[in-house]
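Can anyone check this?
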Amino acid sequence: MSAVVYEQREVRRARYAVAAVFAVHGAVTGSFATRVPWIQDHAGVSAGQLGLALAFPAIGASVAMPLAGRISHHFGARTALRGLISLWTIALILPALAPSLWTLCLALFVYGATAGMADVAMNALGVEVENRLGKSIMSGLHGMWSAGALVGSAAGTLAAHLGSDARLHHALAAAALTVLGLVACQWVLDLRPTEDEEPPPRFALPPRSALLIGAVGFCAVFAEGAALDWSAVYLRDQLATSAGLAAACTTGFMLTMALARIAGDAVVNRFGAVRTVRAGGVLAALGGLLIVVANDPAVAMSGFALMGLGIAVVVPLCFAAAGRSGPNPSQAIAGVATITYTSGLVAPSAIGGLAELTSLVVSFGLVTVLACGLVLFAGVLRPGERDRPRVDRPGVAVPDPKA
């Protein structure tokens, strides 16, 4: 077997492995999101207090994400991802154990810190696989994240319908997902730094090239975080639905995101990143409008589904654009990740705080306005000629020397 054929086979295997890791990561999020109402009741917190607590995952992620690069540099990409994804799956257990607001905040801080570090590590490996294949795969990888989130949320919907204790549900889910994550990590690329390569800084501000790209990601992640954390609460409190139907709304939102992301690479290749994101912004804004005017659960659930369809491919395209935006792709990707997680920080607290002052209807009016930002700012994702990889042999991308 020639070295080229062996490398192609190894890269293809690494693609499937990192896709499985994305699915495991998403399953943790889906498992958590559908049980937020149970966690709120168990901790005895109001909507405003829940909004405060739900800011802590993004705080933890923003603090810890810069450490992921140093961990990967020290241990190698494969070992680092193995440890970080395990910490993330185990952290799922913590929020349901919290009996009060402050313990819930602490649990969610740890939950977010482990999520952010695992997220950076797996996206960096995904971008490396994409570069070696010479074609877009990031939307598909994030589609696997959404598929995992869908599976996790479906299990959570069933658990909520049966009235099960979220502590038991999350303990069982954490055990299964930890095993799956460890198995998948055996076949990801084992990237290691050269002897003279300097370790990345512990903390660094996002580079300038990442700021505008991050602004587009900010709008999408704000809408995504609002829907994930508040869709079940919205249906339960605003439209007086059962716990099972409220959780099913979150599942429907994740379903449309999963389908759109899995198909996203083909759509982007046909219509381009800018047109795809602008069309998605229109769909997301329409979905937000349906949510705001809904007086029937079916209308609100349709709105959440449209919102998921509209924002699905935005974050993968932001990561891909960041990787082309400057001389240090890893730093740019980390910068965009920091900005999008900041959006995750702002969204839950903003939705909860505004709901406390006004109502959840007004809160999702804000989400609708931000969805319009995708239409306005999509142009920053347009690739230039220097951004397109050359492929000198099948399956192996070669950087353009003029880039």
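Reply from J.R.: I decoded it. The first helix runs from residue 3 to 33.
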